[in-house]
Specification:
2 copies of one chain form a homodimer. Chain A is α+β, with helices and mostly antiparallel strands and 140 residues long. Chain A is 42% helix and 22% strand. Chains A and B meet through helix 5 and strand 5 of A and helix 5 and strand 5 of B. The complex binds manganese (II) ion (MN) (2 copies) and zinc ion (2 copies). One manganese (II) ion (MN) binds next to loops of chain A. Chain A binds a DNA duplex (30 and 30 nucleotides) through helix 4.
Chain lengths: 140, 140
DNA sequence: TAGACTAATGATACCAAGTCTCAATTGCCC
DNA sequence: GGGCAATTGAGACTTGGTATCATTAGTCTA
């Protein structure tokens, strides 16, 4: 859905400079289908500085091109996103593939929760973990 | 709901030794009403080693006395738990107080999700963030 | 097409949270 | 009180991420 050229164009439109390091990071992230860490990218790009990889991935996250995926143990990963609005993930704990879910099941509950607790509810985290079909049948 | 003596007793029942360091960590956690980090505890207990604080808080978590609270930025905190079964949290981003919620709003959605995605869903993270009543009125 | 100007880079130090190792200590049970 | 395994804590290490800052290099303008 994304390619290097379209992202390059969006970066330029928003006033960001097109640098070899940025493009290298974009290219490396586009190669991943599941979730990945910053160090996965770093490992493939020995010429690019650590800080630059972090900065670029933060920038891509802010632009909605990447999103952060929370793993079961609490650590954070990244993945190329195909949704720019609020959504959640279903992560396969076996192969790492990630489904982006369309409906936010928390939305309906938030009003009730606000009423019953007296809180003003501003945000939430929600991620699901499981095993995808291929992984289940592949192991039998 | 918990006090030092009852926890000491549970530790002994389960075959754990009662040591000054353990009791100091337990005592320090019981003083907190909201969420806290391991370093919050460490800071109050200069005589206790870093590894021991981590080990003790992990042990208390396994026993259901503490639970892990996920913050909005993805970092993990701890809090004294009053529920031993599956539950989620509503965290005040202003004062840090934590409500433990009784119903799991994800439970109902999981069957649908499993059917529509073909995943076997084994777990989830869910946390809510907001501002509690006192914090909202206190700031006007 | 050459500056100029500013954004971006990357080496490096730092930080936060947590694990690992291992020799020394100490609860616990007899 | 003694034996022994559980526990401790100093310290090195890991992972994920931020702050600093001198140097480099895109981009815009003339
Ligand atoms: Mn996503
Ligand atoms: Mn809890
Ligand atoms: Zn949602
Ligand atoms: Zn739940």
């Amino acid at each position: 859905m994304y390619n290097l050229e379209s992202i390059e164009q969006r970066l330029a439109e928003q006033g960001y400079r097109i640098t070899p390091s940025r493009l290298a990071v974009v290219e490396a992230t586009l190669e991943h289908s599941g979730h990945f860490s910053v160090d996965d990218i770093l490992g493939r790009l020995p010429g690019v500085g650590r800080a630059t990889v972090f900065r670029t991935m933060k920038l891509l996250s802010q632009m909605g091109i990447l999103c952060r995926v929370l793993l079961e143990n609490g650590s954070l990963r990244y993945r190329v996103s195909h949704r720019r609005d609020h959504h959640h993930h279903l992560v396969c704990v076996s192969c790492g593939s990630v489904e982006e879910l369309d409906a936010c099941i928390a939305a309906g509950a938030i009003d009730n929760l606000a009423r019953s607790t007296g809180y003003d509810i501003e945000g939430h985290w929600l991620e699901f973990y499981g095993r995808c079909g291929p992984c289940r049948s592949g192991e039998a």
